[in-house]
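agent> fetching stored inputs for the iron/sulfur cluster docking request
agent> found them:
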Amino acid sequence: MDARQERERVLLDRLRDERGHRVVLVSHCLLNENTRYTGGATRRGAVAEVVDELVSAGYGIHQLPCPERLAWGGALKRHSLLLFGSKGGVLYPMRGVLLRVFLWWTRLIYWRLARQVARDVADYERSSIAVSGIVGIGASPSCGITTTLDLRASLDVVAACPVAALTRDVMNEQAVLSCRREGEGLFIRLLDRELRRRGLTVPALEHDLTAELRGERHSVLSAPPPRTLGS
Ligand code: SF4
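agent> prediction call returned; pasting tokens
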């Protein structure tokens, strides 16, 4: 231990306080459903039971950025709305090309965000604060841990549905829940890679979006983490 580290150790020892030295990284929309896809917010603000569970267990909550808000045109994700009800219009025949460009752009923004989050994890670890987990969102094309969305199939549903016939039910049941598939979201995949590059690991938990949409309560801490990012 060098002189600077020894001085830091003495200072921290003298100023020891109540902090628990454990944080959980939480997907943005669990604390702020205003960033959810349109039709997918079931609460006015936070998913309180998840927050309560983490607070009761003594974790600090680190809110992750919402990747889709930052890559897809703000809180309303306006870029993704372009193809809604587009069947029969000029954009529809170009949807394959548009999706490829959209995914290229998404990967670029998500990679930058993933690098920043990996740096945040490294900072916590250097500061003797354990990053005890990350809570992703099931069925999300961005934040899914074990389940994600077949984006092409989902876009086909919203493109083919006339705007006048589009309802929350169509959106949630047909464009989201029916288009779920096993796998991870794009942001989680890139975060996994950035953590591995730095030799960091974080247990990954998944909030059950299906249960939330059906009005059921779901505990994120009751089962062991299904996977570990960075391993
Ligand atoms: S799942 Fe991820 S990308 Fe989607 S709204 Fe929540 S934080 Fe944003």
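agent> quick read of the result: The chain has a mean pLDDT of 96.
agent> awaiting further instructions
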